[in-house]
Specification:
By secondary structure, the protein is an alpha/beta fold. The protein is globular, with a radius of gyration of 31 Å. The chain has 5 domains: 5-91 and 339-442, Rossmann fold (3-Layer(aba) Sandwich); 100-144 and 264-323, ABC transporter ATPase  like domain (ABC transporter ATPase like fold), CATH 1.20.1580.10; 146-260, ABC transporter ATPase domain-like (Helicase, Ruva Protein, domain 3); 456-514 and 663-748, Rossmann fold (3-Layer(aba) Sandwich); 522-643, ABC transporter ATPase  like domain (ABC transporter ATPase like fold, Up-down Bundle). It binds adenosine-5'-diphosphate (ADP) (2 copies) and zinc ion (2 copies). Residues 327-328, 332, 336, 466-467, 485, 487-493, 719-720 line the site of one adenosine-5'-diphosphate. One adenosine-5'-diphosphate binds next to α1.
């Protein structure tokens, strides 16, 4: 009998307070709630983890011993699970041989098609693979790139050969190699390289020949002339590294760069494969096209025998277009894809799957999507459900929340103030519910009518990487600028690549992890740990250093970690609470000392809010206040930073900036992971930063943030080759009536 619900009783992972839930199967359930309320603790740490653990149990001991060990989540009952697949925002990564085509398996279908109907016939489908020796370009081994001499570093074009135009020391003025050029009689040694004719360049770089000259001591000798590039290649690039001294190799390395492979021009395949075509296009040309254009090309291929294959290929490509990735090409390396793009690609992979009764778990799939494209995502979620799967989604975007069959709202707030189910039921019911989510679904940020006046401008000149069409634009200082546009329009290329390289002083505030050490926590990160130690030292007339779990005061059993790792040969080490200190991390001696009746452990267990009450010292209060102001009042001073969510990391970084002025901050989708009510909070923090005299640039799709900006730069009109232009710059009021700006339309809704 098929069970209709996933049953959870008494879930207690992280901050969950004995949560019990029945989640309908084969429906879309959306989990809402403020950042830190416990959504991930239910969806990933309880349901996802248990499903994975149960799956692992089905394997033989041999395999199990090789899998990471997952401990049973803290819960009384978790029943009626099926196989779960987590589709998250982790970037796909991968080496240069991993492309969007290979990872989606679409390239494999394309290869098969070429092996069947390509003209002329060159081989089996593996021949069309750049990862296969029979297909790869022999020059670059299928990478499409080759190491070459970096001429910009090698030559100073404003000088002549006699003035030392060759910067590589081994070829410097007076050296043997230098003489082989200046005594050749083939070049004008006093002419600046930038004044060379095309012919002279060819001679210098690639020329060949012999010449006779009196090189030394007036003895005529015959010497070979070999162009600079050829000579450098022969001496350093083609030579086995083992035959070079460490110094020579290091020396030469500074003059190298990766360049397009001259043999295949980046196509990665050998000449025979590239000569094989369908309707005039070879496989590399098809892979380099934007997917939205490739669909049409594939659909036009007429071949009765290959018809099913063509239809399947067209369908898979159409899925990519449907999810808003039509601006990407199959040859795009996966390592260069954003988190949102990676997630959507993983999703497409499963749309082709014929498996049913899978639990799909999504983590904010709307990330990176312009409001225009959110309906595409919704359609795919519905499609996956209608195939007979259970869809669990953590999401904040009201346009996605709306499609839920069932909603689970977690709250009421974050951390220890959260961890309960505050509402479950239909979307319409949520609109009536007296929860933060219910209330905020009715709220709308008003369009800013009184914008700040810029104090100056930071200019970007001739931005042309990727799809950018030679953009020159000024970013106003002292205000909040929102950079908008559909996915693939060029926002990150413009800001993260060009702007950041032209203005390196800008500070990026992102959601990446803070503090690499397992021992760092909010107290150490903000520096108040030092003050706390001093206060304890002074009050007890002992050394302040005693109150550090990194040194003298540490529990001898666990060296201040609070837990012990037990190594189990094949298995993941097991983490158990230290029996000596009971997780308190300090030695017994240290725990005798108190400050206003609290031990150091008591203090580290305080939340930011409680600590604000407890401490009077101004420096401590100021830092705590900054954390309070960014909405981290519920964090305890001792919570390991490694357990913070992306949104929490972002906010703790922001807290550290709230006393500065004159800085430039760049934030890429800062509302990721943020509830509607958190977004209001974030905007208050950003306002504070700007009012302190800082410049803030955000890349955003969130209409609340865009409405609140002082200045909008809208890129587009579309993605990929249809984007890369500035379609609007101005204030929020002005964008409403701007022709050609899609973003303006969505601000009214
Ligand atoms: P959400 O997904 O709603 O943003 P989480 O489930 O990630 O919330 O977190 C709920 C609370 O539990 C937060 O206060 C978070 O800091 C805390 N938390 C998450 N993981 C851990 C952990 N491994 N140890 C301790 N606290 C954690
Ligand atoms: P947005 O940030 O607006 O989503 P991007 O700047 O990421 O847009 O992308 C703009 C265009 O540049 C798209 O066509 C994208 O495929 C392309 N692009 C982005 N990064 C790379 C890269 N590393 N290599 C090749 N093309 C890229
Ligand atoms: Zn090549
Ligand atoms: Zn201990």
């Amino acid at each position: 009998m098929q069970q209709e619900y996933i049953r959870i009783r008494g879930a207690r992972e992280n901050n969950l307070k004995n949560v019990s839930l029945d989640i309908p199967k084969r429906q879309i359930t959306i989990f809402t709630g403020v950042s830190g309320s416990g959504k991930s603790s239910i969806v990933f740490d309880t349901i996802g983890a248990e499903a994975q653990r149960q799956l692992n149990e089905t394997f033989s001991m041999f395999i199990r011993n090789r899998l990471p060990r997952i401990s049973q989540p803290e819960a009384d009952v978790i029943e009626h699970l099926s196989t779960a697949i987590v589709i998250d925002q982790k970037r796909l990564g991968g080496n240069s041989r991993s492309t969007m085509g290979t990872i989606t398996d679409i390239y494999a279908v394309l290869r098969l098609l070429f092996s069947r109907i390509g003209q002329p016939f060159v081989g089996y489908s593996n021949t069309f693979s750049f990862n296969d020796p029979s297909g790869m370009c022999p020059e670059c081994m299928g990478v499409g790139q080759k190491i070459e001499v970096d001429l910009d570093r090698f030559l100073d074009r404003s000088k002549s050969l006699n003035e030392g135009a060759i910067l590589f020391p081994t070829f410097g003025v007076g050296t043997w190699y230098w003489k082989s050029y200046v005594y050749s009689g083939l070049l004008d040694n006093d002419k600046k390289l930038e004044d060379y004719t095309e012919d002279e360049w060819q001679t210098l770089l690639y020329g060949k020949g012999t010449f006779e000259t009196a090189l030394d001591n007036n003895v005529p000798i015959t010497a070979k002339f070999e162009g600079l590039i050829d000579k450098f290649n022969r001496l350093y690039i083609q030579k086995d590294a083992a035959e070079m001294s460490e110094r020579t190799r290091k020396n030469a390395e500074q003059f190298l760069k990766m360049g397009t492979c001259p043999a295949c021009k980046g196509a990665r395949l050998n000449a025979a494969v590239l000569g094989c075509r369908i309707n005039g296009l070879n496989i590399a040309e098809m892979s380099a096209m934007e997917v939205s254009a490739l669909v049409g090309i594939v659909e036009k291929i007429q071949d009765p025998i290959a018809a099913p294959m063509i239809a399947s290929l067209a369908m898979r490509l159409q899925h990519l277009v449907d999810i808003g990735l039509g601006y990407l090409s199959l040859d795009r390396e996966t390592a260069t894809l954003s988190g949102g793009e990676s997630q959507r690609i993983k999703m497409v992979k499963h749309l082709n799957s014929s498996l049913v009764d899978i639990i799909y778990i999504f983590d904010e799939p709307s990330i990176g999507l312009h409001p225009r494209d959110v309906h595409r995502l919704n359609e795919l979620l519905v499609k996956l459900r209608d195939k007979g799967n259970t869809i669990l989604v953590v999401e904040h975007d009201p346009d996605v929340i709306r499609i839920a069959d069932h909603i689970v709202d977690i709250g009421p707030k974050a951390g220890s103030n959260g961890g309960e189910v505050v509402y479950q039921g239909s979307y319409d019911g949520l609109l009536q519910a007296d929860t933060l989510t219910g209330r905020f679904l009715h709220k709308k940020t008003t369009l800013k009518d009184k914008v700040r006046q810029p104090t100056g401008a930071l200019s970007i000149r001739n931005a042309h990487i990727h799809n950018l069409r030679n953009i020159s634009i000024d970013i106003p200082t002292g205000v909040l600028t929102a950079v908008t546009g559909v996915a693939g329009s060029g926002k990150s290329s413009l800001i993260n690549k060009v702007f950041l390289s032209q203005h390196p002083e800008a500070v990026v505030i992102d959601q990446s992890a803070v503090g690499a050490s397992i021992r760092s926590n909010p107290a150490t990160y903000t520096g108040i740990m030092d003050d706390i130690r001093q206060l304890f030292g002074k009050a007890n007339k002992v050394s302040a250093s005693l109150f550090s779990f990194n040194s003298k005061g540490a529990c001898p059993g666990c060296q201040g970690l609070g837990f012990i790792f037990t190594d189990l040969a094949f298995l993941e080490p097991i983490r158990t609470i230290c029996e000596i200190c009971n997780g308190k991390r300090f030695s017994e001696e240290v725990l005798q000392y108190t400050l206003h009746g609290k031990t150091i452990t008591d203090v580290l267990e305080m939340t930011v809010e409680q600590a604000l009450d407890f401490f009077q010292r101004k420096e401590v209060k100021n830092k705590l206040k900054a954390m309070y102001d960014v909405g981290l009042d519920y964090l305890t001073l001792g919570q390991p930073l490694s357990t913070l969510s992306g949104g929490e990391c972002q906010r703790i970084k922001l807290a550290g900036e709230l006393h500065k002025s004159g800085s430039i901050y760049v934030m890429d989708e800062p509302t990721t992971g943020l509830h509607l009510s958190d977004t209001g909070h974030l905007l208050e923090i950003i306002d504070r930063l700007v009012d302190l005299g800082n410049t803030v640039v955000v890349i955003e799709h969130n209409t609340d943030v865009i409405r609140h900006a002082d200045w909008i730069i809208d890129l587009g009109p579309g993605g990929g080759k249809d984007g890369g232009r500035i379609v609007f710059e101005g204030t929020p009021q002005e964008i409403l009536n701007a022709e050609g700006s899609l973003t303006g339309k969505y601000l009214l809704i």
